[in-house]
Amino acid sequence: MARLPPHVPQISTGDPITAALWNSFIYAANFHLRAPSALLYQSVSQSVPPITRVRITYDSPVRDTDGGHDPANNSSRYTIKTAGTYLVAVASGTALQGPAGGEQSVGILVNGTTFWADHLRARDQAFSAILGSCTAEIPFQIGDFVETSLWQDSGLTQTTIASTTVGSWMGLHWVGV
To answer: Which SUPFAM superfamilies does the record match to this protein (predicted)?
Structure first.
């Protein structure tokens, strides 16, 4: 069941505080203490062929307060259960396989079709891995979903970095209506 975003009533000096008014403040306070949020990461590496956009799969939720992620079905998606604006941040990258070079792009993809953010980086021969990230505030309706998209053009299939500290992850937090 979807939670309703809190409505904080406006009161004026001298207005009586009724039980109904007090309860509406309690609901708003409790909602913000546990606002919808999730932090997902990838513990198993994933192949990223060249010139192909791959949706990163997440098998390990650190937290998911609204139950929007299912690691068994559509594990690349976080499905919105509470409407509102969310701050979404993603990071992903690949370990270097073969000669360095080319470019890599990590993006935030909404409902499988709309890019809200995309970060393109050139691969450098001095590094054994490359990690990109991007962030956006996105308005969602119930049932919308968000994914991390990764693309690279090194000429070889690359492998994502799977780690709780520097690997692929997606985080989101409800910030308002």
So the answer is: TNF-like
**23 within some domain:** no
Q: Please, are residues 25 and 33 in contact by the beta-carbon 8 Å criterion?
A: no
Digit-by-digit pLDDT tens for the chain (177 residues) are: 567 777 777 777 888 888 888 887 887 778 877 899 999 999 899 999 999 899 999 998 899 999 999 999 999 999 999 999 999 999 998 887 766 667 888 999 999 999 998 887 776 665 667 788 999 999 999 999 999 999 988 888 888 987 766 789 999 999 988
Which of 137, 136, 76, 150 is closest to 106 using CA atoms? 150
Number of domains present in the structure of the chain? 1
CATH of the domain at 115: 2.60.120.40
